[in-house]
Amino acid sequence: MNPDKPILLKRGRHEIALKKIPDRFAIRLKKGIAKDMASLRPLNIEKKEEPEHIDSDPSERMEIFSVREHVMEETVDHLRKAPRSEIVTHMYTTDDTPDGAFIPTGRMTIRFTHHTEKETREQILAENGLEIEREIDYLPDGYIVRLTSASKENPLKIAQKLQSQKNVLIAEPDLSFKVAYKFIPKDTLYPQQWHLNNLGEGTGLVAGADVKAEKAWDYTLGSRNIVICVMDDGFDFTHPDLNAPGKIIAPYDFGQDDTDPSPVDKNDNHGTACAGVALAEQNGTGAVGLAPGCAFMPVRTSGWLSDNAIEELFQYAIDKHADVISCSWAAAAPYFPLSTIMQGIIHKAATRGRRNRKGCVILFAAGNESAPLQGKMGDINYHQGFALHPDVIAVAASNSLDRQSYYSNYGPEIAICAPSSGSPGRGILTTDRTGTPGYEKGDYTFGFGGTSSATPLCAGLAGLILSIDPELTASELRNIIMQTADKIDRENGEYNADGHSPKYGHGRINAHRALKMVSGNHDGNNGEGRLPQTLFMEHRVKQQIPDKGEIKDTIPFPLMTNIRAVEISVEIKHTWRGDLSVYLKPPGHDEILLHHNSGHNANDLVMICRSSDDPELFAGLAGQPAQGDWILRVTDNAERDTGVLNKWGITIHY
Predict the structure, then answer these.
(1) Which end of the chain is more exposed for a tag (fewer CB within 10 A), N or C?
(2) Domain containing 503: what range?
């Protein structure tokens, strides 16, 4: 095989071509870290090779070095033979840029076909020297595996081989990537926060090019029961606008692995600014966020993120009951399809997160390249996987003149836009690191912006909405934000028949109109806007599921009304949930398969299925009569293990 030939791999629903970076490698020691030439000399490294330490990936304990191209292979070979080396790997790129680099971490995601026998699975793992770390609860027949000393090839080559095998549905190497934060470099300062209330008084301002915050605050300033999680590069807790009683919830630093996500590096300024836009406290001084009354979950990331790191971030937000997750960053590589793990954990958070399991509201910045989220511009292919995830609200930016911010990415996947910086308009005033560190001297920055600022502003709106109605699902909230947005710049916005613009999505967020709708008093754009009515019915069954048998239970729905949306919740106590199949028969409709033989030997089955999250599963129900018998059928398909159907319920939105 030509060593310079790109390695073609399936990643998620796409294919990527990975090329070696000729002068960079990464190393992880079994104990300790290697950050300079002195630490490499005991590892058989020769002085003539002179590697230079250039970066760190703390989430994977990997250190990154550059070395002259003509001694690259010799250097890597020497280091791999050293007893203290755990992993020494080449680095790869998809776009020939150092910032778009990837580091194979030594882990892989593997998903077998459902009918692959246990012995065949073990044989495939043994042939490639792979060891199971754990099963993946949101990916049936899926495992996280790691390479061992018995592995004869690197993870990219193993994945490439496995992707062609009939028993393997997915084989993806875990690739750590560099994060790019999407920022372009009264309360006493409130009058200067035009994005909250724009009076049009001054150059670069147009009256009304704002989120209508003051009228929204007549409904709520936000509740401490609603938690907005900001995932970013560090947060200054000494700032008076972020440090208030009961405000900070479950802080964590995944870069340092501790509970203090304060800034570490001199450039860790971005998170403090983003947090202020969303929820800076209303305290009579300084600046204010759109949702000042909401609680704040600060989560610091590291500069590099892998499958494992992304999974840890979002699982933490699920476990700590975040309601809203704001992410003003993306992969540095312009072409970045999400891995199966990334797709799965974001979907899990968006559909099963929050204390009430209604799903976390997840927002990602669209980006600042003035490029399509997906497509080609010039010689560059773009695919910004995080913003493209179907469960994510992709946020673009408009400026203080209600026009597109010149840098804002675009495309049919944009959900919404929010006010931010952009010539010839003005920047955003928000919290900065206190004192000398930060974007500016002092405690505030007057020039924040980019889709980095638009995203937490939209997250603040999500927090206000949930403060009024915490029982909304994530998808319902998304629809409310889009339905109540203002169609700005109609002349140049290129809106289609469905009211969507590739520049602005469904328009610029309008906090007042959104809260008015949620409060049940919305006049809307067309005199519409009544929120769907909802009826929840639950049976506490406590019925034994016979071994290799089945049970049925019926909930009669009493109302003569048509279905707008449906949710089904099921709770089963069982010692081997992989034995189970669960079916739902709505009135006058064929049975729907909700669960079938997945989960293997895991205990218990707790699930919520929503038509808003999986329209295909509930195809044909919308608009149909809800009245009648809704029947749940549970079958046990294998011998030995038994269980109990504790309860199940239906929620009909009409």
Answers:
(1) N
(2) 182-396+403-469+493-518
